[in-house]
Fold:
Amino acid sequence: MIPFRDANPSYRLPIVTVGLIAVNTVAFFWELKLGANLEGALFELGVVPNKWLLPRQTAGLALPQLFFPYLISLFLHGGWFHLVSNMWWLWIFGDNIEDRLGHLRFLFFYLVCGLLAGVVHTAFNLNSPLPAVGASGAVAGVLGAYLVLFPHARIQTLVPFFFYYEVIELPALIVLGFWFVAQFLSGTAAIAMTTATGGVAWWAHIGGFIAGIALLFLLAPDETRVGR
Structure:
């Protein structure tokens, strides 16, 4: 299912949401300019789980240096589709969460969700030598918060029916609930893999989604009454 837009107006100008989309886009154009140096940059700035198992790579590094990739990787992407899909979901759902939390709390919320998503990805992929990049863990946190705050919001969604597609309105509970279940099933299946392969960081999505729900209750306990 692919969401097009939600029938859920926001009342603040979503300056942080727009700013995050702009920063991610600028960062992607910077990646394109790296050319042959891009792969090395992604290994340096992305989240590489097995670095924690290689003392020679972490020796002498202070804690902020160790966690720097967990922050900077949130603004890097592996291709146009990766960038556009993440920014599309952020654009649809981010404005309403920013509206509820306020600009600064939303920025803090987004970054912490992304950081925790990276930690969860590392924990479930400790043997992986591949760099993980992308905003999807932070965006997943936005989706988790949206599900709690607006479960009945109507989402115009492209839904496949065998050989054709149709746009229908569905409640956020179904759209985002289906998304989370799909991530969880895929992440569970990925645990069975014994070799490192490229692809989707399923557990970053799962971790970010759960972090978003938990952080919402911590940052805005008065806002978590369903349907408010």
